[in-house]
Amino acid sequence: MKITDIRATTVAVPLQAPLLHSNGAHWGRFVRTIVEIETDNGLVGLGELGGGGESAEAAIVALKRYLVGHDPRQLNALPFMIANPTASLYNNRTQLLAAIEFACLDLVGQDLGVSVSELLGGRLRDRVPFASYLFFRYADPRTGEGEIRDPDQLVAEALRLKRQYGFRVHKLKGGVFPPDYELECYRALAAATDGDLLRYDPNAALSVSEALRFGKAIQDLPNDYYEDPTWGLNGLRQLRGLGLPLATNTVVINPEQLAANVLNPAVDVILLDTTFWGGIRACVKAAAVCETFQLGVAVHSSGELGIQLATMLHLGAVLPNLDHAADAHYHHLVDDIIVGGPFEYVDGAIAVPEGPGLGVRLDYEKVARYAEYYREVGGYPYDRDPGRPGWYPLIPNDRWADPTAPQPDTLTW
Length: 413
Known about the structure:
- The chain is an alpha/beta fold.
- The relative contact order is 0.17.
- The chain has two domains: about 5-115 and about 365-375, Enolase-like, domain 1 (2-Layer Sandwich); about 120-360, Enolase-like C-terminal domain (TIM Barrel, Alpha-Beta Barrel), CATH 3.20.20.120.
- Helix 6 (about 150-165) packs parallel to helix 7 (about 180-190) and helix 11 (about 280-290) runs parallel beside helix 12.
- The chain has helices spanning about 55-60, 65, 80, 95-110, 115-120, 150-165, 180-190, 210-215, 235, 255-265, 280-290, 305-320, 365-375, and strands at about 5-15, 20, 25, 30-40, 45-50, 125-130, 130-135, 170-175, 195-200, 225, 245-250, 270, 295-300, 350.
- Strands 7-8-9-10-11-12-13 form a seven-stranded parallel beta sheet. Strands 1-4-5 form a three-stranded antiparallel beta sheet. A two-stranded antiparallel sheet has the order 2-3.
């Protein structure tokens, strides 16, 4: 089996409402680049990566000269072929590597008639549990609905998601409004969710002292973990006296950083992202290290459509030490580009796909529809907030949004 062609298509899939985060916003849509790798036996493997738009398409297509003629079963060669650790100092291809690995695993699974989780040693669970992922949101400018900017709106959304999908763990993406205001929201969430586990993630926006103060104020709550409250391994180490489990998806995302955290612990829970780590197999290797040193693991979300969600599900299926529910932005999407439509949550979990490879196929009508939508609306600056023209964040931040500010002009979307 040899690779004969690589194709890339960028799509924009609408969200229920624009999502706010400490660095800016998802401006009402996710922009994702779909990768297709074709082989000489007629199979097509699927991959996915986020952001980039035309630049991501061009970067993927540029890998043809590296990959045409390569046997996709030779997975161990991929990191050195396209993301050599020294060459990548000049051209960081980690996310490209991940998308290519997804597609190659999909091809190998299809060729052998087995799922990716079987290729990885066999699934230990058939369903992967998920946390709700709660964001502060602007109203959808098309409908005027979906706003979440105060405690009552946040609680109402959390309870709706719990009723609809069965979530028993709730994660609040913070770092948007002043810390005391977000503390009020988080405590309201705790009071309303009947002892469910909670996560707070301000995307490292807080100073060490502010993170300490916030952490002390939530010590009495049923916290699953305190995620990236401040920046850097050393900053996080200064919070270990709080007695709260600390988690990260920002400063432990490669083997060297994981080794540093083992030698001098800063975080307790490593959030494994199949894109950030450069593929599913890299996450499996990292999870084995975490198992050895008794670190917790969870599966992280980086704004996926169905292809990457399938990679997350296969990863979650094979990890013996998966001791926390996964994250997913997925329920904020209004649609997906896979055959059969979006995956379904049942009792807060999603079933691992059963088919060969990743177990998902493209719905080409929807790919065409959302590729055209991308051409109409384009990308957006992830690290800017449409409601605050000229704003950009500091780390640590002190430029907080005003929760009472008017809805942004729809023309800016």
